[in-house]
Amino acid sequence: MLGKVIRELRTEFEISQIQLAKALGVSKQSVSNWENENILPSIEMLARIANYFGVTCDYLLEMDERTLIDVTGITPQQRALVQKLVFEFQKSNS
Q1: pLDDT at site 91
Q2: DSSP per-residue codes, the chain
Q3: Which of 26, 47, 71, 92 is the most buried (most CB within 10 A)?
Q4: How many domains does the chain have?
Q5: Which of these, 79, 86, 60, lies nearest to 4 by C-alpha position?
Q6: What CATH number has the domain bearing residue 31?
């Protein structure tokens, strides 16, 4: 569920609970409680978590498997190159 997804993302990003807590402006205990499913983050915090990891709230809630890549500030040609790389990685993993 949500706690498992948060833990997996945090692990993939190679950050500690303390680092995530600091980035989100909450205590380490809050992050621990989310990951252990003792409490759920607020809707506002859910959106902040999603933005931090570059995923959607649907992804966090396991309703969608897509993740996001922020390409703000790059040219259309660079964006096309990034998309090409993504397609190649997806094809090679199939």
Answers
A1: 87
A2: -HHHHHHHHHHHTT--HHHHHHHHTS-HHHHHHHHTTSS---HHHHHHHHHHHTB-HHHHTTS---B----TTS-HHHHHHHHHHHHHHHHHT-
A3: 26
A4: 1
A5: 60
A6: 1.10.260.40
Q: Under the phi-then-psi rule, with left for phi > 0, alpha for psi from -120 to 50, and beta for the rest, what region is 67?
A: beta
What residue type is assigned to position 33 of the chain?
N
pLDDT in tens, the chain (94 residues): 999 999 999 999 999 999 999 999 999 999 999 999 999 999 999 999 998 998 889 999 999 777 777 788 999 888 889 888 988 988 888 7
Q: What is the reported pTM?
A: 0.72
Residue 55 pairs in a beta bridge with: 67
Q: The tokens of 69 are what? A: 């890549």
Please identify which residue in the block is written with the tokens 């931090």: 52
